[in-house]
Amino acid sequence: MKKIPKYPKSKIPKKTNTTNESRIRNSPGFTLVEVLVAISILSIGILAVSQMTVMGMKVNTVVNQRMYARVVMAKVFENLNTLPSNHAWLFDTDGTQNLTVPADSSFADHFTRVTDSNAPYSYMTWWRVADDFPETDMKTIRIWVVWGPAMNHIISTDLIKRM
Q: How far apart are CA 39 and CA 106, in angstroms?
């Protein structure tokens, strides 16, 4: 029989646990909870960025529509500005100085539709003319550009012209 050596208590070798459990506990990796928390935070961030992207696309569409409406308004403004003051498009058809927004083109003094294959919608331009307003021998022409699926978007400007 083999004799077991006697060691002093300070020299007894410590028993090492070599099971899989202790290796996993002492490994430098991540726990399942840490991974789930990281994935949750990442998914919330990605969701926020995707919503901002969609919102940016919607705003970009609206800005493009308004920009094109301004281009249409500038064209109509220049066309009316270059006409002589006795042109038929510059007559005040109702004889009033009412420049309020008409409900539709049938209440306007004049109107025209502007279509372009590059434009997202058809743009209607209406204008009303007020003679001798704001002074005698002057015409005020209020121009509206209306667009949208229900013609619910509108911008306007005034042109004052000597008679």
A: 60
